[in-house]
Amino acid sequence: MTEGAAAAGVPPDGRSGLYALLSRSFAFPTPEFHREIVDGRWLESASSSLATLPYRLQPGAAGAWSASGGDYDRFQSEYIRLFEVGARGSAPCNLYGGHYARDRLRTMEELVRFYNFFGLRLSPGLMPDHITVELEFMHYLAFQEAEAGGSGGDVESYLRAQRDFLDRHMGSWLPQLQAALGAQRPLPFYRALVRLAARFVECDRRYLGRPDGPGRLGEGNYG
Predict the structure, then answer these.
(1) Distance separating alpha carbons of residues 159 and 163, to the nearest angstrom
(2) Fewer CB near the last or first residue (10 Å), C or N of the chain?
(3) Rounded CA gap, 43 and 181, in Å?
(4) Residues 12-57: pLDDT tens digits?
(5) CB contact set of 181 (below 8 Å; sequence gap of 6+)
(6) d(CA 136, CA 3)
């Protein structure tokens, strides 16, 4: 997204920060990202965001986040095998949410309406239903909610959008991604990453939908 980043210099809250971290983690891995995992800096960042969530969610044992030691080529190849090409020419664990819907085109059109409603546009080359884009959008909404709450602004539209977005999109297909991954015997890091993302989204749905949660929520209109 071209306008999806949080304001520079303003630290995100736990929810916003974790969505941003997960979005970055599902992108094609660079050597720098692999080193961040191997050095333990990635898990430190995740643990820091998890510690400030309004509910309890644990990252799991450190061993669950193994990234094939110092072998970046193997780590990169595993990403390609799982999420891009696979042994049969198509990704066995598709990162495009529309893949799990009955009508992908309709799903993408609704996603674009969500983004456009908040003045966001996709960067060239990005598809609206890729997991990195959907997670970045949730990062944006959670960040804006925190900003509005801190300044006495209107948080209702951001709360409503988060609830609706998770119910209509990520909350419905992440469990299917997790099930598909389970049949592939992935490297520990990718297994733990998908599991954390699915658990986080489910916990966030429950949190946002609680009667005593952050606000009154209902169905939004993003058309």
Answers:
(1) 6
(2) C
(3) 21
(4) 578 999 999 999 999 999 999 999 999 999 999 999 999 999 999 9
(5) 82, 93, 190, 191, 194
(6) 10
User: Which tokens belong to 71?
Assistant: 């072998």
pLDDT at 153 over 90: no
Encoded tokens for 205:
């749905």
- Predicted confidence (pLDDT) at residue 124 exceeds the cutoff of 70: yes
Q: Which residue has the tokens 């898990």?
A: 43
Contact (CB, 8 A) for 87 and 98: no
Average pLDDT over residues 181-206: 95
**Which two three-digit tokens encode residue 11?**
């630290």
Q: Determine contact, residues 107/129, Cβ cutoff 8 Å.
A: yes
Answer whether 223's CB lies under 8 Å from 113's CB: yes
Within 8 A by CB and 6+ apart from 18, the residues are 46, 49, 50, 53, 200
Query: What is the average per-residue pLDDT within 127-155?
Result: 93
What is the rounded radius of gyration, in angstroms, for the C-alpha atoms of the chain?
17
pLDDT of residue 6: 47
Please choose, from the candidates 74, 15, 25, 85, the residue with its C-alpha nearest in 3D space to the C-alpha of residue 50.
15
Report residue 169: phi and psi, to 5°.
-130, -90
181 phi/psi in degrees, rounded to 5: -65, -35
